[in-house]
């Protein structure tokens, strides 16, 4: 989300994975196969990153 303070100054805030959800973990027989062959702990097609939430604040000034 961005807020235009004036013609030159813009303030922005944003987030990725706002609620810090965890991806689905690999479990069961598939876990043994996955760990031995790929070293993975989470399914790679999860909509969430295993690093957790990412938040930022940005200020932009145009001359």
> What is the rounded Rg?
19 Å
Shape: rod-shaped
Strand order of the largest sheet: 1-2-3
Strand content: 25-35%
SSE succession: EEHE
Give the strand tally: 3
Provide the number of structural domains: 1
Q: Mean pLDDT, nearest integer?
A: 78
Roughly how much helix do the residues carry, as a percent range? Answer: 10-25%
Largest sheet data: 3 strands, antiparallel
Low-pLDDT residue intervals, each spanning 5 or more residues: none
Structural class: alpha+beta
The N- to C-terminal Cα distance equals: 22 Å
Count of DSSP helices?
A: 1
Describe this structure in words.
The protein has a 3-stranded antiparallel sheet, with no helix packed on it. The chain has one domain (2-61). The protein has 63 residues and is an alpha+beta fold. It has one helix at residues 29-37, and strands at 2-4, 9-16, 54-61. A hairpin with a 4-residue loop joins strand 1 and strand 2. The model has no long low-confidence stretch (mean pLDDT 78). It is built from 1 helix and 3 strands. It is rod-shaped and about 60 Å long.
Could you give a quick summary of the protein structure above?
The protein is an alpha+beta fold and 63 residues long.
């Amino acid at each position: 989300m961005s807020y235009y303070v004036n013609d030159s100054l813009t303030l922005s805030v944003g987030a990725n994975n706002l609620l810090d959800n965890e991806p689905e973990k690999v479990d069961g027989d598939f876990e043994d196969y996955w760990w031995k062959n790929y070293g993975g702990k989470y399914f790679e097609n999860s909509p969430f990153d295993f690093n957790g939430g990412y938040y930022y604040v940005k200020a932009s000034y145009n001359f």
